[in-house]
Amino acid sequence: MKSRLVLSVAVATTAGLLLSACSGGGSGAADDVKGAEVSSPSEDDMSKERESEDAEGDEGYSAEDVDRPKIELPGDMTKEFEDVDTDDPTERAVLADQAQYASAVDAAIAAGEVGPALDFYATGEGYADALELVTGFHEDGYRVAGATRYYNRSVTLRDERVATSSYCVDFSHAYSVDVETGEEFPDGDEQGLYSFRQVLNDSGVWQVEAWRAASGGEACD
Question: Is pLDDT above 80 for 24?
Fold first, then answer.
């Protein structure tokens, strides 16, 4: 049920209809989600971050040195990320942060508020689009639960600070929960293909800067 909201919003992003839940002042849907107003990066912050990244040059980063926020998922939610056959430490770091981004989004949906993890693993449009999803679930009174499988994962390093990655998502054992009544709604056999652009920030985190999605199709068979 609600996974269809996730896919439909993502497809809108693919079509260029960029979401604007945290695009400025004034009241809006995002204002109802706790933490949203303090976690959204401003355009000035993003510009300064890019300038800082350019100035840093080619310094090395170690994922083991990063102090990461803890992500707590509900007891009725499990996420299985298929391993990828690569020994490249940078590729594995990109994939690890890709998985953490997905977990951060679902944790925010479950909690009904934006915690530090979402801001930690996302930036720019990647943050804004995730916030729109969290807001949509919060307004409709649902959260996600069940088992979700992420497979056919891939990663491509574009340069030392930019990568693209993707995965297919199997929603067949996932379901939505009405927060007020506890009623469960199976999501069916829907599959989605998600693609990401990730950038390495000054802390050594491969943040999701933008993402898009489409129905799985042959790529997810």
Answer: no
- Residue 65, domain member (yes or no): no
Query: What's the CA gap between 125 and 211, in Å, rounded?
Result: 8
In this prediction, residue 69 has a pLDDT band, given cuts at 50, 70 and 90, of: very high
Position 67 in a domain: no
- Rounded to whole angstroms, the Cα distance separating 83 from 154 reads 10
pTM: 0.74
- Domain, as residue range, for 144: 2-16+28-56+72-220
Structure token digits, residue 123: 């930036």
Q: In angstroms, rounded to a whole number, what is the distance separating the alpha carbons of residues 2 and 21?
A: 19
Q: Is residue 134 part of a domain?
A: yes
How crowded is residue 88: how many other Cβ atoms within 10 Å of its Cβ? 12
User: Looking at the domain assignment, is residue 61 inside a domain?
Assistant: no
Residue with tokens 């199997």: 170
Better pLDDT: 137 or 15: 137
Nearest to 73 by CA among 145, 5, 23: 145
What's the pLDDT tens digit per position in 152-201?
A: 999 999 999 999 999 999 999 999 999 999 999 987 777 899 999 999 99
CA distances from 144 to 1, 52, 68, 91, 209 (A): 10, 37, 23, 29, 23
